[in-house]
Amino acid sequence: MTTSNSFVEHKENNTIRKSIGNIIKSACSAKVIKKRLPIIQWLPKYNVTLLMQDIIAGITVGLTAIPQGIAYAVVAGLSPEYGLYAGLLGGFVYLFFGSCKNITIGPTAILATMTAKYVADYSPDFAVLAAFLTGIIALAMGILNLGFLVEFISIPVISGFTTAAAMQIAGAQLKAFFGLSGGSGKFFAESVYNFVRNIKTANLWDPVLGFTTIVILIFLKKVGEGCGRKDNFMKQLRWFTSLARNAVVVILGIVVAYVFKVTTDSEPLVLVGDIGRGLPKFQPPPFSTTVGNKTYIFSDMVQVLGPQSIVLPLVAILESVAIAKAFAGGIQVDATQEMIALGFCNIMGSFVRSMPITGSFTRTAINYASGVQTPAGGIFTGFLIILALSLLTSTFYYIPKASLAGLIITAMFSMIDYTIFPKLWTSSKRELVIIIFTIAICLCVGLEYGIVSGILLEAAMLLYSTAKPSLNIEIVKRENGDLIILPLTGNVSYCAAEHVRRALLQASQTAAMDSVIVVDGSNLKHMDSTVASNLMSIVKVLEKNSCQILFLNFSSDFKKMCLVLNPTFANKFVVASNAVELIDITQKNV
Amino acid sequence: MTTSNSFVEHKENNTIRKSIGNIIKSACSAKVIKKRLPIIQWLPKYNVTLLMQDIIAGITVGLTAIPQGIAYAVVAGLSPEYGLYAGLLGGFVYLFFGSCKNITIGPTAILATMTAKYVADYSPDFAVLAAFLTGIIALAMGILNLGFLVEFISIPVISGFTTAAAMQIAGAQLKAFFGLSGGSGKFFAESVYNFVRNIKTANLWDPVLGFTTIVILIFLKKVGEGCGRKDNFMKQLRWFTSLARNAVVVILGIVVAYVFKVTTDSEPLVLVGDIGRGLPKFQPPPFSTTVGNKTYIFSDMVQVLGPQSIVLPLVAILESVAIAKAFAGGIQVDATQEMIALGFCNIMGSFVRSMPITGSFTRTAINYASGVQTPAGGIFTGFLIILALSLLTSTFYYIPKASLAGLIITAMFSMIDYTIFPKLWTSSKRELVIIIFTIAICLCVGLEYGIVSGILLEAAMLLYSTAKPSLNIEIVKRENGDLIILPLTGNVSYCAAEHVRRALLQASQTAAMDSVIVVDGSNLKHMDSTVASNLMSIVKVLEKNSCQILFLNFSSDFKKMCLVLNPTFANKFVVASNAVELIDITQKNV
């Protein structure tokens, strides 16, 4: 096989320096502006047919966005209208910056549950500031072109995180589902503990409605299977009812609660209750706030948000990119662009009291199924939410919390990828350890710690394998003593320095008297000063044992790296293109 | 060059599983006990000649260990006798477990400065508990065979940390050196700020004595150059005075202070003052303590020590291993053994109220220069310290703090490796960034954060380069359309998955109609499920574009990893030993 072409660019170790230069350059060119404002690409081709499709999809998504928004506001411990505020501007902003037509931006269960502890311990102002900071950090990461960071999160870690998040979110809903008294718990373990402790306080009607909700959701999902937007009317109806099933169960819940109220004048179900009416004022996010009688200025608030203010945008980006990948159909997803879009969505959102938002899997799937054509669909979802906020808040009073709990728990079941466990058991036990570790830390310490620990564990395992590059020693026969050749290939980094040193010492010990040890750098692509230092110290040790060592075909950079440590060893560096030439050189040198 | 032999063991990715098994096995065998108790190897060969040499070296080291111990106790903010307690047992314990004859265990400037904040904010009990925990963690790491972890710390990070520590330690001594009032500061920046702010409170005699101390130390160092233990009497005297120079300047300081006292009945110099007399009681370390009127139980104390309880043993191990390497003369240093030795030294030390201890560079150098033969030298250092604690504590009252400050500052100047900066500037700017970053974080945030950040930055850079393995596409000509071959070599991990995917998509876009893309796994040593998942999703994309793709010579493990995700692609995996065979296969398949 002859190498006739190598058109894949090969980046060397100076990429980091380069990329700093690139950041500045890339922020300016006209081509980049077009890339960073994807609307410029599709708007000129926009027409009425596309508009109609976007309207249908946008409204269908809205029918899920409203009940899910209310549900996730409840997950975050916020008043329900916050879930609608969070859905208000995402679509409008994503219209300009979004690169993936299917994605719908809004509140999600994971971000809501990560925001919950601030709301519980402090006030909703912290959720709004968290959205603002999430936006700022995501935008900054986008501008710094840090999209590649997403590549450092492997599938087992993402999957473990998602599974644990789903368990935690569902666990926290047990309280509402059974109408229990007491707290719900911030942890999965705590939720389960509280559930068991308070089980005796369970209401009759709440779990009945909750289970009914789940059954109806599963039924309606089945009903829509095999039906599509372009089928006959009956199938279309089944398809649409299935897509709007979240709205259906919430409306049913409202009807049940209202009937109870009217017929028996009682409220046996726990209801959502009063909802702030009307649209939020457009105003800057709260940079200072008062909780109880303590005033928090901006720096205090940031301190309260703590290290999680870094993890929130990371998770937001991750959710969005993962969803984009799932719906991109193999087309390249530009993580940097998603960072920029999410950044603007969250920043703008925080001006209308939104909690942190990102791409939602459920609603993106509905958007896709409804045949959305451009990110313009999001506008119509937004209009529907504005309508709901203006007209329907008094109706929302009657939403039973058990309906929302049923809705959330059902959504969570579909978030867990059950198949990954047997797959990894068969194919990669090491990765099974990673996913279980990630889930355990998520459930026992917290979601944010779990994802970070998972990433670090996997990175540590990778570094560990990097520390032991395979060193296959070759022996070249020579008249007066053999040549023992140790080829250094690819990247040999500081963590492999000791490994190389051990191999060389071992080689020198087993070598016969007249042998020459040759460190072959012909295929060495990267080394660092720790490796250079070890190589030079080895020379001294081997010289003490009167053992010859030579460095073959080291590039001028690597040679310089070694000689700067010990210039007297310049004569140890030789160049040869084949074995014969090398033998020649060694015979002259000895 | 023919490969006739490859005797360097090549570990596969299941090393982690293996090593857990090894831990249990390795803890038991007789051979390992001999390795883990190095005294068994050298004691049978011990004789009077060796004993005499060890006695001379031990006492010479003692003459530095006493003044340095007092000085480092002052650095930690402890009463001076703590520095002597810290030197008491190290030598006796290292005798059994130490693998490097030159190393002397005791208090060091870096560990003292890292302990200082606990003593300042709480009490000496925290320093003693820190020693105990350092011991427990170091021992646990040794038992778990984690010596390899040291290899993940590169020379730039170690050097940056040492430089920053030296600057911080010297900076904190400015107060004592100039006899200033006010605090000295926990940070380098804070120390310098306090120095400038309080400069007007400077004493006359303290800086005079301090500068004199430095001048004498430099002079005595020069005096000993070129002299050795086996020279004539005059040269021997010069050599010994030079080695004992730390004791000399402290004795001179004592004399000056005493003369002041006797002649003028005044104390114009700031003195060390009263020292606890006699040997400490042998008792367990404080597992609970009272500071002010608050009682801290064990868990509270551990919480106070915080994450630094992990960093302290790491730094202790690092110092010892770095010194062992410097004096091992190229012989393999067993980091695991050093962990075990340090573990026992610190645990035992905490029973006599020692602060955290490790190998000391200065005293190890003196030990080496004095011709020590076995770790038995440490016993005699220990005896000298016992003598000092029993008899000399009233003399120590007169030690001027400025003498100690001069001594510490001089020691710190020699700890900084000035040459590494121009070397890295010439040979590796990337590593220059790492060293400067490490120093900056150490000086501005804290030593423990600096070393951890440095390690993480370097690991991140390494992972980044791992994420972009070079993919050199080869084209094999065929009658009906070319074969585009993408070889995956070595380790292809999750962070490279996107890179591989991009390369494949790019290849498919530039390929002609009848081309077949072949992913060559012949030299693939490691892959994971994220890579497998990307490869399988690529197949779907390429099939949509009716582009052929084949997987060549994937090992059965890797094939299984892919097929568990999508069993229908089994026919895409082919085996061929050369180009002709491969062309045959592709022609059948198409």
TrEMBL record, chains A, B:
User: Under which name does UniProt file this protein?
Assistant: STAS domain-containing protein
Q: Which Pfam families does its entry note?
A: STAS, Sulfate_transp
- Alphabetized InterPro entries for the sequence: SLC26A/SulP_dom (IPR011547), SLC26A/SulP_fam (IPR001902), STAS_dom (IPR002645), STAS_dom_sf (IPR036513)
Give residue ranges for domain STAS.
473-561
Primary localization class, coarse: membrane
Instruction: Report how it sits in the membrane.
Output: Multi-pass membrane protein
Q: Name one GO biological process term.
A: transmembrane transport
What residue ranges are annotated as transmembrane?
55-75, 82-106, 126-150, 157-182, 202-220, 240-260, 310-328, 379-399, 404-421, 433-457
Subcellular location field: Membrane
